[in-house]
Amino acid sequence: MSKAIAIIGGGLAATACAYSLKNDAGQHSVTPVIFEAGERLATGASGNIQGIYDPRFQKLRNGVGDYFFAAFKLAFQIFSGIQERTDIGFDPCGTLYLIKSEDERAYYQAMIENQRLSGDDVRIVSAQEASAVSRITLRHDALFLPHSGFVSPALLCAAQARDIDVRLSAPVRNLEQRGSGWRVNGEPFDSVIIACGFAARYFSGCEWLPLQNVRGQMIVCPANGNSANLACNINYGGHISKPVDGLHVIGSTFQQNDTDLSLRESDNERILARLKENLPSIAEGMKASRAAAALRTASKDRVAITGLVPRKGEWTTQKPVFYDNLYLSTAHGSYGIISSLASARMISDQILGHAPHFSEETRKAVAPDRFLYRLERKGRI
C-alpha cells in the first residue's frame, strides 16, 4: 500500500523532500503531493537568479559542521545526476574565499584539520595559485573549494518536482490530525512535511518556532574587460559569480527582520562598493543592469530546523513528545540550496524507515526540539 505524503511549500525545501522520497523509496511505495499556495513553484528566495552553493564553515568538528559538509557533498552528487538529464544551470566551477587576515587563515586551517577535510574538498592556495584558478590577478591567498559552483534555484525546483503531483494555488487552510495520520484540506495523508519557510509558524503546534525573515538584495552586472575571464566564484564577504552569458551575479545584503522587497539603489551601491574594496581590478566601471530582492527564512542559531515537530506543551527532556508523522524542513537561510537536500534525506530516512544517513549528533543539531532543550535549561519551560 502506498504511503501518501503531503508536502506544504513549493520552494527548495519542499521540492527536495519530494525528490528524496521518490528517489530513496526503493521497494517502498510513496506518493508525495506538493501543496503550493502560489501560482508557481520557486517563489521567494527559491526563485533567485542564481545560487552559489557552498557549506557553512565550522571551525570545530560537531554536528552542525558535519551536517553542512555532508549537505555540500550530497548536493554535488545530486546536481551532477540531475544535470545529466535536464539543465539546472549547474556549473561546478569552484569558489575562492579570499584570506584577508591571519585570523582567517588560522580559522580555515583549524577547520580543515578538525573536520578532517581532504584537499579534494577544500584547501588553502597561494595568491599565485588563486590567480591561476580564477584567471584574474588576486592579491590574497584563498580557501579553495573545487566542487563549489552554482545552479539555478528555479530550474532545480522544477527538476526536483518532475513527475510529482504538484497542486498550485493550493494554500493549506486546514491541517488536522486523525489518529497517526493527517488530513490536509480534508484529504487523508500518512505524513505531512511542513516546508514553507517562515509560514511554518502559521500552523498549530509550530507557532513557537524561533524563525525570522532575512532580506537579501543582489545585482546582475555585465562583465567588463577585466572580469570576463573570471573562471570561478569569489567570496570576499560579498560574492561575485563566474559570468554566464556575459553577466555576473553579485551580492548580497543581509538584513534581518526586514520584509520590504522594494529594490534599493543604496543596496546596489553598497554591493558595488564592497566589490571595489576587495577586487578593484574587476570592479572598475561595473554597473548593475538589474537587481532582485528576496526573503530567506533563518532560525535563531542560523541552522536549519529538520525533523519531527515536538508537542511543546507536553515536552520535557525526560519525556520528549512529538506529533505523529508531522515533520519540519525550514530555516535554511543562505545555505538552502544544499541544506534543503540534507534535510530532505534525513526526513525521508525517517518516513521510509531507512537506516539513518546522518549521525545522532548531526540529527540532534538540526532537530526542532533543540530549542526546547535550551529553554528548559534556562528554566523557561
From TrEMBL:
- Name a single GO cellular component: cytoplasm
One protein family per Pfam: DAO
Look up the EC number in the record and give it. Answer: 2.1.1.61
The Gene Ontology biological process terms listed for this entry are:
methylation; tRNA processing
Gene Ontology MF, one: tRNA (5-methylaminomethyl-2-thiouridylate)(34)-methyltransferase activity
Boundaries of each FAD dependent oxidoreductase domain copy?
5-349
Leader sequence segment: none
Per UniProt, the keywords (alphabetical) are: Cytoplasm, FAD, Flavoprotein, Methyltransferase, Multifunctional enzyme, Oxidoreductase, S-adenosyl-L-methionine, Transferase, tRNA processing
Q: What is this protein called?
A: FAD-dependent 5-carboxymethylaminomethyl-2-thiouridine(34) oxidoreductase MnmC
